[in-house]
């Protein structure tokens, strides 16, 4: 039987439901080189993030669809997902969380916290270095999860590269959480007025169970 400490070692594959942390950030990416006008220049990455935050006795959930910088490979797009998660952690002033990805290479590279010594994959070195720098003074754990536990982030990423980008802000940012007073969702208020270099937040939806 696998030792529990070994099972929960950062970078390993875990069952997300067994995490004890109150805050989780699931990340995923959608990337299609065939849809690019110039395959030599890569393709824009669609990033999806699913957030679960514990606030007192209530739980806040949000799905985020964003476009990221141009990626030259699928693994680069996945690494951009972690970089967006780091930006969100900063914007929401969260000091402790688990960041989850369904790409094992990215999970192990980020968990190693030594992008120069253990880059995992040279294509993602700079993104992992950015993630480590942005989360250096936070208690952030990184794990790999199977795709069946990452469905919400996956769908959010897919929407990012298929939806109409002309959607008005009132449709892009929405809150259906009954706990939040109409027009007073702190998560939306913070993200609506935050500029994230290299990313464009297309849709943010705050909701409850």
TrEMBL record:
Signal peptide: none annotated. Residues 35-159 form the RNase H type-1 domain. It comes from Triticum turgidum subsp. durum. InterPro entries: RNase_H-like_dom_plant, RNaseH-like_sf, RNaseH_domain, RNaseH_sf. Pfam families: RVT_3. One of its GO terms (molecular function) is RNA-DNA hybrid ribonuclease activity. This is RNase H type-1 domain-containing protein. Gene3D superfamilies: Ribonuclease H-like superfamily/Ribonuclease H (3.30.420.10).
């Amino acid at each position: 039987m696998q030792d529990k400490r070994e099972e929960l070692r950062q970078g390993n594959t875990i069952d997300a439901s067994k995490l004890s942390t109150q805050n989780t950030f699931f990340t995923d990416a959608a990337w299609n080189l065939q849809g690019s006008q110039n395959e030599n220049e890569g393709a824009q990455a669609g990033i999806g993030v699913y957030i679960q935050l514990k606030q007192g006795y209530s739980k806040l959930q949000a799905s985020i669809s964003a476009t990221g910088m141009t990626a030259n490979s699928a693994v680069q797009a996945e690494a951009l997902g972690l970089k967006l998660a780091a930006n969100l952690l900063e914007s929401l002033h969260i000091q402790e969380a688990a960041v989850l990805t369904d790409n094992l290479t990215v999970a192990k590279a980020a968990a190693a916290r030594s992008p120069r010594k253990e880059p995992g994959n040279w294509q993602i070195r700079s993104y992992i270095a950015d993630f480590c720098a942005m989360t250096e003074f936070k208690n952030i754990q990184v794990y790999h999860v199977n795709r069946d536990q990452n469905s919400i982030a996956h769908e959010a990423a897919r929407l990012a590269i298929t939806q109409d980008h002309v959607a008005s802000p009132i449709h892009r940012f929405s809150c259906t959480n009954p706990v939040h007073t109409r027009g007073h969702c702190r998560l939306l208020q913070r993200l609506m007025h935050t500029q994230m270099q290299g990313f464009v937040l297309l849709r943010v939806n705050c909701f409850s169970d």
